[in-house]
Design a protein that fits this description.
This protein has 134 residues and is α+β, with helices and mostly antiparallel strands. Helices cover 25% and strands 18% of the residues. Strands 1-6-5-4-3-2 form a six-stranded mixed β-sheet, with helices on one face. The chain is globular, with a radius of gyration of 19 Å. The termini are far apart. The relative contact order is 0.18.
């Protein structure tokens, strides 16, 4: 009886360990270097657009459609003052708000696009970015 219980506990612990070591589908996933990963996304966390939060996917659709955008600052120049994205001339990047449920203001989530088609997602107000593979 005790051996059977210990076996179940050990099995449950091993399952938990497997989930922790392999990940469990967080917003930020590291994309392995593959031939299909664009050069601008190599060396940083990456996620496919389908794995973004629903609000970010809605914002991507608005960007693709050219608006209209719900926030006045959407589509304005992103200065990259934090230096987290590759250095480019001023005006190269544009930023868009990703609505955060429960927030009364713009919140911390943004999509940033580059002139060459790059798309980046941040959920911590520019402290870090994830490349969005489309």
């Amino acid at each position: 009886m005790i051996v059977r219980s210990a076996g179940r506990v050990l099995g449950a612990l091993l399952c938990c360990l497997a989930v922790l070591t392999t990940g469990c589908g967080t917003e930020r996933e590291q994309a392995g270097p593959t031939a299909s990963t664009p050069a601008w996304a190599r060396g940083m966390p990456a996620v496919t657009a389908e794995r973004l939060p629903a609000e970010a996917r809605r914002t991507l659709r608005l960007i693709d459609e050219g608006g209209p955008y719900p926030y006045p600052k959407d589509g304005t120049v992103f200065g990259n003052f934090e230096g987290e994205l590759p250095r480019k001339p001023r005006g190269y990047y544009r930023e868009y708000t990703v609505r955060t449920p429960g927030e009364r203001d713009r919140g911390a989530r943004r999509l940033v696009t580059g002139r060459a088609g790059e798309t980046y997602y941040t959920d911590d107000h520019y402290a870090s970015f994830t490349a969005v593979l489309r």
